[in-house]
Fold this protein.
Amino acid sequence: MRIIAFVNQKGGVGKTTTTVNLAAKLAERGGKVILIDLDPQAHLTTFLGIPPGNIKRSSYSVLLREESLEAALIPVRDNIKLLASELNLAAAEQELVSVMGRETRLRDAIRQYSHKCDYVFIDCPPSLGLLTLNALGAAREVIIPLQAHFLSLQGLSQLLETLLLVQSRINPELKVSGLVFCMFDSRTTLSGEIVRDIEEFFNRQREQDNCWRDIRIFQTRIRRNVKLAESPSYGRTIFEYERNCHGAWDYNALADELEAMVTGE
Amino acid sequence: MRIIAFVNQKGGVGKTTTTVNLAAKLAERGGKVILIDLDPQAHLTTFLGIPPGNIKRSSYSVLLREESLEAALIPVRDNIKLLASELNLAAAEQELVSVMGRETRLRDAIRQYSHKCDYVFIDCPPSLGLLTLNALGAAREVIIPLQAHFLSLQGLSQLLETLLLVQSRINPELKVSGLVFCMFDSRTTLSGEIVRDIEEFFNRQREQDNCWRDIRIFQTRIRRNVKLAESPSYGRTIFEYERNCHGAWDYNALADELEAMVTGE
Ligand SMILES: Nc1ncnc2c1ncn2[C@@H]1O[C@H](COP(=O)(O)OP(=O)(O)OP(=O)(O)O)[C@@H](O)[C@H]1O
Ligand SMILES: Nc1ncnc2c1ncn2[C@@H]1O[C@H](COP(=O)(O)OP(=O)(O)OP(=O)(O)O)[C@@H](O)[C@H]1O
Ligand SMILES: [Mg+2]
Ligand SMILES: [Mg+2]
């Protein structure tokens, strides 16, 4: 079972869009997927056509130990179950502050889930607070969606520092397995420069012993494509909305790369 | 003095880019501007070419009352002073949780500042936590940068609810004065539909007594333009980087609209 958190504290870089569409393709190929929405804005939940206002059992109740993961999961597609978010989730960060083992609530909940599952994907909010820490405490792998813009680069070193801390204090298994460029526009020189900067940065770090030494910069670039921004307004994944567009091809190719990775399973 | 918070908990919609470039144009025209960076990612600070790591006095120290606003301001351009952010700012949210009057720390600091100033602009993080609440407690006006995408629409009602709460409990003067579409791509039908939805939504609310009844949907659309994404990598505003591009023209037009608004001053 691969447990992957999609993390980047920079807002609007494609975390939710990548989590949903990658999961959809893997599920289409027969993988059993659990999606976990840890964003108080509940975009993953909305994306799949579920109104967050109607949720009775959510990631909020699982983090506060009122529900088991199994009881709170909602089947949303063939092979996909969702742990939905609700707006109260923002309150969970404050409520968890003084609780023992506050960062490992989600990990405990996933461990107690006894059914067969191939992938657990966790969509994170744009911050490095307790909700994201719970995702990092539960995950075995991190994938970083990144926009090839200067401001998106800024937060990368802070993100890596946080990952090191989590690895040394909360979750020794955690490793950064991939980075994927989203909303990519290959016509601009800016995107080419940023890709080069990133590849050089990580290549220099290969010899060091840190949780991102084996990071894979995915060859697949998710190109900017308005269909990817349209599909959530119909509560549909890109494959349900428009199978013949860049967005669908790019996430299909990304799913190929993800499956081809040999993990330590 | 106009105190304006640029708020939207949806990530990556153009808050920082709008705060900086609008301020730059108003300052060019002779307005005295104070910029306040309330985002722990310190993107406003980085955008202006200031490395957040070197900051001694920041919005963190002002919120925790260790410094006055006057002592912490850094002159960054003609007519522009910056209250920088530092990475510790994320810790301020946790430290302020149990403090009396935690939402009005920034308001108090601005009130004690006695020098002449035409605009105070506050850049907010992508969340509705204590840092954004401090901005809303201090501001008289809110401008909402919005991307014409479905997922960006989702958070709008939650944002308006939060603004109502702030107005009734912390800051009765607060009003939503404007909404500006950023990263706008008029070629897609999606953007036209979203603009229509937004205009209809707010036109229906004109009769009600709430803090957004007089909202102005700015006619200026900030079009998607790679120059706006390139300029921060040089620590420059769009007017310093490339005066002859859509980005510079659009922010110039937005400054015109902002100045033309008759406020309750
Ligand atoms: N490749 C793409 N091309 C065009 N639009 C995209 C693409 N990927 C995502 N989008 C759109 O861009 C916006 C940001 O994407 P998304 O919400 O997935 O990012 P996020 O990182 O999850 O944001 P947040 O930080 O708010 O959680 C959304 O409106 C989405 O529909
Ligand atoms: N009109 C535009 N055209 C093209 N790129 C833009 C435009 N406005 C902003 N950008 C770029 O898009 C990204 C998001 O913008 P920005 O950082 O200003 O949004 P934000 O709302 O402040 O994000 P956050 O929620 O992370 O604070 C940045 O990389 C920025 O350079
Ligand atoms: Mg998201
Ligand atoms: Mg910002």
Observations:
- Residues B 15-16, 39, 43, 123 surround magnesium ion (ligand 4) (CB under 6 Å).
